[in-house]
Amino acid sequence: MDKTSQYVVFAALLSFIINIFTHQQLWISLTNSLILILSWLLFKTNFPDIKIPAPLVIITLGVMPILNFQPEDPIIPISLILNLCLLIIYQKTSLFSKPLLISTILFIIISFLFGTRIIDSDFTFNKFQTIFSNELIPLSINLHRGELNLPSFLESIIYNKLTVYLSYSVANLLNFINLKNLYDPLLIANLYPLALGVYWFFRNFRQRKIILIWLIMILGIFSINKTFDKFSSLYIALSLILYFIFLGFSKIKPKIYFLLFILSLFILLTPKI
Amino acid sequence: MTTKQKVIFALIMLIAFILRGVSLDKIPPHLSNDEISIAYDAYSIAHTLRDEHNHFLPLSFQSHNTYKAPLYIYLSVPTTLIFGNNEYAVKFPSLTLGVLTVLFTGLLVHELTKNANLALLTSFILSITPFHILPSRMALESNIALFFVVLGIYLFYKSLHQQIWLLILSFISFALSMYSYHTEWLFTPLLIAILIYLNIRFFPKKINLAVGIIIFLILIAPLGIDYLNNLHTFARANTETLLSDNFLSRAFKSDDLNIVQKAQLLVTSYLGNYSEYVNLYYLFFTYFNDPLQSHPIQIGGIFTIFIPSFLIGLVKLKKLFKNHYLFILLWAAIAPLVPAFTRGGPNSVRNLVSIVPYVIIIAAGTYFLWNYFKNSTVRKIFLSLLSISFFYFAMIYYHHFPLKTGENFQYGYKQIALFIKQNYDAYQKIVIHPKFGEKGMYDGVPHLYIPYYTYLDPQKFLNERRDTKEGLFVDKYEIRGFKWGEEKIAANTLYVVPHSLEPSEEIASHLKKVHQIKLPNGLPAFELYQAK
Questions:
Q1: What pLDDT does residue B95 have?
Q2: Mean pLDDT over residues B451-467, rounded?
Q3: Distance, in angstroms, between B101 CA and closest chain A CA?
Q4: N or C: which end of chain A has fewer CB within 10 A?
């Protein structure tokens, strides 16, 4: 095992210990640590030759709040783990590629639907978790149509449900993906490699279309999810977030990262009053 | 630039001017309380060299105890002398420098990239962006500060490898930005530090840089001296910072927390605030939601159609701006640092300096996408959506907004003043209730609107003004609260009250309503009475 992978194991161990202290439950401690390790394996499958200049930084992932979060439903971490296993196998082998791909997408969808509570743990569909249940939207369309005396063809474009729901879903997505919603679960320090990882990925995504599809699906689910708990919602994207962070770690300046990490700890330990 | 590009540039400037200048006296519907303070101070300085509070050529204008930066008011003095006491006089500096910001932003991009088409695109996007149009139509100090910042940056880059005088002009412009708005007191020095750090290797003679910095420090020294001599100037700053937030101020007074914990709370609050300022939801969706509160489609400070451009721009910025991409990103990152220290949620006026780097990033993304999608269908769809977005904004802002927001701008005082001007000699006394709005909830500033629009001699205003606990008394005006039941109705007296404080029937029987001021939406705002 190379040195970097050893540090990943240390980080997983650190997360395990913190989970045990926080939740006193073995299953979430194991699953969260496993998600970290499998995300690393997926990353190494995609980028076997990439070097992380300061692998010590990886240990800091162990204290990331989202890795020490317990989702309400155990189906979610299990789906994430299965999803990661299938993705790794899919990327490593050309056998059964289609069934593997379909299964991967299926488990992504399952984790999304349960993670955002669009499907409850008793398998009932909860439409009130989506923006489509917002009764104010059709109400406001009818209320304000005609108010501005727009030409009728413009009115038909602006004041129709498709336009409005599309606008609303994009607004919903942007409202969720804000700095505070990211740094609370991930720590400020990890936004640095995350940004670099996402930037580098988009400059070179053509070879990794499955990851792009995964990202688009996640963004899609965020955009239609009505009520956001930042931890629950980001948890379903945890493996993808870790993937980008690992990618970003290969580009960071370690000194800047460590300074940000100190700031992150400073904020993390803010008294709750 | 080719001749065709120059023609396009001229057209863009024309668009910028029209969007910022058309119906300037009606949209917004009335001068706000900050604008009238600027307007009146400019009027007073023009005739007496003293501000409303009798301070001689101040470097900090007391205003409503907000202690405004001075430059905007001094720039309004010549326009007041030329145009008289009206909206055009007080808004002219903002309009002109707003249009010039569009010009110099394009020139800056051209200087950084040598790409004329990208420069034109950047100017065009800024010219049609609501985030910049709205402030350019108001007398806002932050808008002229933005101009001086952009000009300073442009001259700075122009001076690289070239003559020292451009660098000196750059630092003069930066100094003027600090005379324009308080946010720049911290932002501009930080920006200069970044510019120097990123570009010091391009200066063949470091001594030129030192000269520029010294000139800059000399120019801003009077601000520093004035600040130290008048520490109460920051009375408003103290009430506007995070430290005055209820939660934080209680925490800071608490003995249960040590200094480290208090620092942690402050840093956490600050970062939360900063996060709101850079929230894309605010930028692209809710910036302009005042007149649109329940509309199904909201308008942001930047059109929603540019979201993909913004994201792509972040990735492609380095390719287009090469060595200078980092400066653009840092500019965008540091712009909200100072306003994030104030409370009350994201404030677009305080954060105005961020619009230029955002537009540059968007232009970079749009430029890439435009060249990537050579398919004319995609281009037509983009242009159609952009046109629809702009048309929707234009209908909302130029038609809907002035009708709906009269009360927000204390609409009615100008109209009262014009009535008084026509009937001044008919009254011995004019009593004006200082409240306005629904249920008379809000405190107005009629003591500025009325003298301004009636051209009351500013020297007389200074000589005769009496501020007592009952109210403000000057000339034949009494600006004070009163209750109809307790007021002794006097003959030859005009009473001005908000509609919500109309007299009862019994009292009204002793009065004659001589005029009513209505809001642009037709609802009554003020009633004017005299004794029967």
A1: 97
A2: 95
A3: 29
A4: N
Between residues A221 and B318, the one the model is more confident about:
B318
pLDDT at B293 over 70: no
A187: left (phi over 0), alpha (psi -120 to 50) or beta: left
> CB distance from A131 to chain B under 8 Å?
no
What separation in angstroms does the CA of A84 have from each of A29, A107, A137, A237, B175?
A: 17, 9, 37, 11, 56
Nearest to A270 among B265, B295, B297 (CB): B265
How many Cβ contacts (< 8 angstroms) between chains A and B? 98
B317 touches chain A (CB under 8 A): no
**In sequence order, what are the beta bridge partners of B493?**
B429
Q: Which residues are CB-neighbours of B242 under 8 A, at least 6 positions away?
A: B248, B266, B269, B270, B273, B341, B342, B343
Q: Which residues of B touch A244 (CB under 8 A)?
A: none
Go through B408-432 and write b for each residue having 16 or more CB atoms within 10 A of its CB, e for each that does not.
Answer: bbbbbbbbbbebbeeeeeebeebbb
At residue B78, does pLDDT exceed 80? yes
